[in-house]
């Protein structure tokens, strides 16, 4: 590839998923992404290769996520060499291929995709994004956020990096032939609020990693690592409702969906404060609690809790929900950019509210790049 270093032109594996009968793999293939199916035992390729466009990024440095749900592949990546067209895309199944609106900053603006999880009728995508602030919003942000974020605002041409969760309905059929044809009608997004309360809230705006959905005290929750620097459009069409499918929505509703994907308020933290606060720290872990028929909205139907953890830049999380001799404890393993692993025992209250009983167990040195 002209203009690229030889090391960048190798085939970097960016998608590796289990599927019935084997594995589904996508690689950058020297900036010409391709996907293929392989047997699970002998790793022999099955059938022909599949285009990696909208399923795998061209550049190995670009973030992407992918997962199978109900026989369809859901991906969040970029579709072009210049990484201008960010997309959430459904393909390779019996359902109609759908994507997000192209080149519309109300839907996406420089997203960094972190993870994707399936819960109920939805797929949730977690990511960081450069949030669009007008002049008044910038003044508000200056008043209520920490200096780290203000500096970030200057460095990013007055754009502020925040973390958001977006979701789509798995069985969305797209819009009409006039509005949102072959595009999502259920796409919604909301800001994730991970902050320390006080006279001036201290925000942890960058999401690095999330856990799968785990069960704790009768509730489905998600854990994430953060650091500093009723029926309405956007709902799912279901049998028995006024509209049996999304492509039966009237054009007025579809136009509203197209121009209003962002929820009005952020998703708040459960308990409104961190679980653990330590000195010399840079990262937080947040718990997302799903409720039945959960939609991230201004009514607060999604609730959160935060956990402040590390001396290092934390960027990965693994959760063991069956730790201990009786397999009834929850232990977090948090990986850092320096290769250290922090181990915590978390013991929230029965309602998953703030507690002072969380215990730091040990710090392991998995890999030290300085040695």
TrEMBL record:
Could you tell me the keywords of this UniProt record?
A: Glycoprotein
GO biological process entries: axon guidance; neural crest cell migration; positive regulation of cell migration; semaphorin-plexin signaling pathway
Work out whether the entry's keyword set contains Ligase: no
Q: Example GO molecular function term?
A: semaphorin receptor binding
InterPro entries, per this entry?
Semap_dom, Semap_dom_sf, Semaphorin, WD40/YVTN_repeat-like_dom_sf
Species of origin: Dissostichus mawsoni
One Gene Ontology CC term in the entry: plasma membrane
Higher taxonomy: Eukaryota, Metazoa, Chordata, Craniata, Vertebrata
Presence of the UniProt keyword Translocase in the record: no
Q: Which PROSITE patterns match?
A: SEMA (PS51004)
Query: Ranges for the Sema domain?
Result: 1-371
Output the superkingdom of the source species. Eukaryota
| One Pfam family this sequence matches | Sema
Q: List the protein's name.
A: Sema domain-containing protein
């Amino acid at each position: 590839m002209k203009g690229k270093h030889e090391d960048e032109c190798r085939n970097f594996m960016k998608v590796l998923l289990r599927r019935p009968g084997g594995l589904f793999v996508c690689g950058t293939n020297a900036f010409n992404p391709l996907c293929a199916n392989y047997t699970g035992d002998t790793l022999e390729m099955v059938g022909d290769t599949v285009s990696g466009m909208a399923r795998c990024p061209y550049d190995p440095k670009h973030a992407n996520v992918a997962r199978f749900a109900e026989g369809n592949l859901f991906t969040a990546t970029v579709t072009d060499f210049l990484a201008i067209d960010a997309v959430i895309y459904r393909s390779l199944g019996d359902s109609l291929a759908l994507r997000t609106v192209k080149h519309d900053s109300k839907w996406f603006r420089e997203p960094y995709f972190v993870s994707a999880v399936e819960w109920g009728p939805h797929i949730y995508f977690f990511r960081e994004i450069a949030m669009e602030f007008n002049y008044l919003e910038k003044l508000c942000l200056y008043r209520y956020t920490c200096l780290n974020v203000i500096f970030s605002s200057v460095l990013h041409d007055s754009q502020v990096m925040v973390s958001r969760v977006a979701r789509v309905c798995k069985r969305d059929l797209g819009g009409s032939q006039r509005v949102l044809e072959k595009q999502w009608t259920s796409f919604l997004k909301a800001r994730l609020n991970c902050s320390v309360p006080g006279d001036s809230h201290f925000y942890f705006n960058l999401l690095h990693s999330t856990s799968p959905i785990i069960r704790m005290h009768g509730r489905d929750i998600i854990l994430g690592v953060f650091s500093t620097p009723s029926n309405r459009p956007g709902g799912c069409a279901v049998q028995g409702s006024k509209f049996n499918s999304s492509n039966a929505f009237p054009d007025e509703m579809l136009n509203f969906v197209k121009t209003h994907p962002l929820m009005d308020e952020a998703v708040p933290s459960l308990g409104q404060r961190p679980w653990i606060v330590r000195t010399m720290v840079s990262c937080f872990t947040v718990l997302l609690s799903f409720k039945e028929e959960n939609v991230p909205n201004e009514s607060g139907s999604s609730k959160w809790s935060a956990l402040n953890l590390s001396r290092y830049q934390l960027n990965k999380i693994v959760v063991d929900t069956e730790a201990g001799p009786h397999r009834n404890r929850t232990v977090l393993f948090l990986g850092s950019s320096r290769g250290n692993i922090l181990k915590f025992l978390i013991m929230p209250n029965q309602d998953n509210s703030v507690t002072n009983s969380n215990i730091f167990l040990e710090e392991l040195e998995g890999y030290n790049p300085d040695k």
